[in-house]
Amino acid sequence: MSFESLGLSPELLRALLDMGYQDPTPIQAQAIPVVLGGRDILAAAQTGTGKTAGFTLPILQRIQPMANTSPSPARHPIRCLILTPTRELAVQVEESVKAYSKYLPVRSTVIYGGVAMDPQVKALQAGVEVLVATPGRLLDHVNNKTVRLGTAGILVLDEADRMLDMGFIPDIKRILQLLPGERQTLLFSATFSEEIKRLSQDFLTNPVRVEVARRNQTADSVEQRIYPVHDDRKGDLLVHLIRSLDIRQAIVFCGTKLGANRVCARLVRDGINAAAIHSDKTQQVRQESLNSFKAGDVHILVATDVAARGLDVEQLPYVINFDLPHVSEDYVHRIGRTGRAGATGHAFSLVAPDEERYLRDIEKLIKVQIPPVVLAEFQQAASFGRTAGRAERTDRADRADPAETTGPSDPVAVRPGRPDRAERPDRAERPDRADRADRADRADRADRTGRPVGDHAGSRGRGNRPRLEDIDPMAGVVLTDPSPEELQARRPAGPVAPLRPGRRVPEIPALLRSFPKTSDS
To answer: Is residue 176 within 8 Å of residue 204, measured between CB atoms?
Structure first.
């Protein structure tokens, strides 16, 4: 089958010829006629089999009769909306649209977050027929009233399983309310779970299901291996693989952004040209790193799953999973970056002991047991779980003879060669403690100041604290209590007149003048 037999226009066939495409892939051969017929479609195929061309070519064919060269923006309304989960995938899809519409008067643009909105607003105001966008930035333009979706008769959800994930449902539903009720909806992805398929029924009308390969199947052209290793030796193993296999171009996937930064820093420290991309990087930095990687200036691209969806790097030979994904379907997307369009590729996974459960889920999903490879330098780190049981072991000769070891029938026997533990001598009994003498009565004890306990105990909770008037400001020591004779001498002679408001007490100034002056006063 050829592209001519699918009924594509001469302009599209000419663009395909310029790109070197002659025969359609299985997903393209089945999806293009369905899309040209105006039907909704739910398509699943292996990553790297040409899903983007499977919906881009028939969409351009359908809007070609309405294409024109008029400079008026009103003559170029939005006729097709393509939603993608990531910025990188949006850029790549829009590049494909431009390449396929090379000989058509069709305008297209891409909008995504992380960059300024003004250039995107100018492009939208000039008029576009095909709009590629991420949901978040598209809703920003909707709120600013810089885009109108009422004329978009075709909706494409690329990587639909992630687009229909629970986190995207509110955005997708809001966007659907802005589209015409009568439209064509296309869902393309590499994987579809049963839950996603049931959920997609809310957005599709009598869809045609196209599945050219077994669901969640990986490409046969990709060689898959697992390398058992403890987590603290993963960095050493990664550097060893890159140098021993002379890897000049590879994508290394990490589970977290922090992990990607650390792996990239480790590779750079060991003299390996590497760059990292993840959602914390600005869009400009991410795009520059990706372009440098495609051009060969950067040999190792360390990325999170933000780069796993839809990225097309021509003839990418290696994909290395530094961390196994927690979602099994993401493994299919990751290794789908290599072995594209029939080319051979290699997918290596560094598996730590605590990641074996994720490995079992992945093998259950793809229905393939991935062979383990145990390197001599990391053999000790590989002795765990099922992966070690399937791997070839070279240290069996070093194991002890079973006849010399304790069998299960004698669980209390002692290991051979180990001396018996000496019995602990009996502990001597402690002598009886002598009875403690009775405490002395409180009246017979003196406090630390030498005064009998109880003095001033009732004076407003002060206890044994000295009174302020008993402190000598010059010596800074506490004086003893005045005797009754001294107290009597301090008492003024004659009757004491009662205090009245505003009346001056002559004894207070005289008392203040009696204190000696210091250098601080």
So the answer is: no
Amino acid identity of residue 205, one-letter, is T
Contact 260, 414 (CB under 8 A): no
- Do residues 42 and 179 touch, judged by C-beta distance below 8 A? no
Q: Where does the pLDDT of residue 459 fall: very low under 50, low under 70, confident under 90, or very high at 90 and above?
A: very low
Specify whether the CB–CB gap between 275 and 242 falls below 8 A: no
Of 256, 244, 248, whose CA–CA distance to 298 is shortest? 248
Using DSSP's 3-state secondary structure scheme, residue 211 falls into: strand
Residue whose C-alpha is closest to residue 332's, from 368, 289, 299: 368
| Model confidence, pTM | 0.62
Other beta carbons less than 10 A from residue 319's beta carbon: 24
Q: For 306-342, how does the pLDDT look when each residue is reduced to its tens digit (9 = 90+)?
A: 665 656 777 789 999 999 999 888 898 888 888 876 6
Lowest mean pLDDT, pick from 34-48, 285-299, 353-367: 34-48
Distance of CA 161 to the CA centre of its chain: 19
Q: How does DSSP assign 69-100, residue by residue?
A: --S-GGGS---EEEE-SSHHHHHHHHHHHHHH
Given this model, what pLDDT does residue 403 score? 41
Nearest to 97 by CA among 87, 111, 82, 84: 82
Q: How far apart are CA 322 and CA 254, in angstroms?
A: 5
Encode pLDDT of 348-389 as tens digits: 999 999 999 999 999 998 889 999 998 878 865 444 555 444
Task: Tell me the two tokens of residue 268.
Answer: 């750079």
What average pLDDT does the segment 154-160 reach? 89
- Asked if 257 and 280 touch (Cβ cutoff 8 Å), the reply is yes
CB neighbours (10 Å) of residue 232? 9
Least Cα distance to 141 among 110, 111, 181 occurs for 111
Rounded Cα gap, residues 204 and 34, in angstroms? 14
From residue 383, give the alpha-carbon distance in Å to each of 214, 233, 238, 425.
34, 13, 18, 42
Instruction: Please give the span between the terminal C-alpha atoms of the chain, in angstroms, as a whole number.
Output: 110
How many CA atoms does the CB half-sphere of 266 hold within 13 Å? 19
